[in-house]
User: Which sequence fits this backbone?
């Protein structure tokens, strides 16, 4: 009788182990497929060019020796540093309600083609969202979609990590561009 | 008899599952409330203004086209880039023993108000702490407290993540400011 | 009989708990010792100095008021900002096949000695690796080895975290340096 119950216990023990392992595997697989939070925003960058002091949301603040801080440099703007404080909207209309600000900087970092590198925060302070999401990463502008890292967050986005997929939704010469940001958080609190 | 022990085993099995779930929930709740490590530091920034070469710990290195690198720009310093190597102390006294250095840069990124964005490392090399803590995030200076992300660490702080709450402890015109940094690590090794 | 099987169940229950705890401890210890992925690369930086427009891969784009963007500043280059797009190779030969690009910027951030701070991405687009690894951290150049944080990744390196150990493999005056990068990822997907 004791042997019987011993066997039973052992069967359950192994079932439990199996369950444990398969759950872990399933959870891991799930984590790979599905973000715990997903958000889509647009942000709008209007570069100061000497004539748009009122409307502009960004400015050149660094340039290589062959450039200046009023006009983007030759060689695919290589060496330019731009600081921005751009409005964030829920759709692709510049005049839609601002739901936050994209603040930070980008640099143009390649002579042979248009490529940039961005470090920025999305800053929210509305009834919908309070807090920040912090991003860094390479932004090869001419690629249809490109992935940057969500390296952290605060407030509603405390301790977030994930990936943001950027795509250029529109641009007008060297003055305006609009990026679509598909934020996928894989670590949430 | 076998049925009885089967029942017993099943009861324990479910108790175990319950225990497992509630523990996970408790651990998660705990993680939200309590950092695994908490550290408070102050750091002191003395901006070079053309007259304090000896004492200054930071310098303007980027400016918009309407500014220069000696005096902070108009429009709430929008467009200024400042590189710093600031002493870290345990209390709010500039002359207290230095326990490390805060190294990195900040930018002023808004025309309408004072707001900055910081990327920096706290570098420690003492008997107390060896290693670095890396930060990035938006710093809306005029807000009483503001949260930035701890995005990583090395040495004693290997693989750390968390949040740092900054508050302006003091400032003197445009030359000196002192920040209180309440570092809360929620991921430790 | 029921008591006997009850005892048995309880023994297994406690064994299970012990197993659970020791496994967790072992896993944690393992995680500390062994990266889930390890990669070694070299990258090569050739700074524009006014005479090497063709070969250079980086340029000074920010300088303190006592410097300029053609020659690195006095005071251990304090205040210089350099943007780079450097080739990555598998060995220490500048002419080896490029396996990716190191893109980002570094700043010199101390008056008294050579110390820098780096934010960059390794960008891969080959059959071997597709995706990016994102780094930030202090780089005290004169130290034999120094650790920076891997704060995120995309593509093949999605959601990566870890530490990179940099060492200066070679340098030629103020024009060329080559860094060995020993990347240790402790979080992989």
Assistant:
């Amino acid at each position: 009788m004791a042997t019987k119950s011993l066997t039973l216990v052992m069967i359950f023990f192994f079932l439990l182990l199996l369950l444990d392992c398969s759950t872990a595997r399933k959870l891991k697989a799930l984590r790979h497929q599905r973000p715990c939070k997903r958000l889509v925003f647009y942000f709008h960058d209007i570069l100061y060019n000497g004539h748009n002091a009122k409307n502009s949301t960004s400015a050149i603040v660094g340039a290589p020796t062959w450039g200046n801080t009023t006009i983007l440099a030759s060689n695919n703007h290589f060496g330019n540093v731009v600081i921005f404080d751009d409005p964030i909207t829920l759709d692709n209309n510049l005049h839609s309600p601002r739901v936050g600000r994209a603040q930070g900087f980008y640099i143009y970092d390649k002579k042979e083609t248009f490529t940039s590198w961005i470090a920025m925060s999305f800053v929210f302070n509305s009834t919908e969202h309070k807090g920040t999401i912090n991003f860094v990463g390479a932004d090869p502008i001419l690629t249809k979609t490109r992935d940057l890292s969500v390296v952290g967050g605060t407030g509603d986005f405390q301790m977030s990590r994930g990936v943001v997929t950027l795509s250029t939704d529109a641009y007008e010469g060297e003055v305006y561009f609009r990026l679509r940001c598909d934020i996928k958080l894989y670590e949430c609190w």
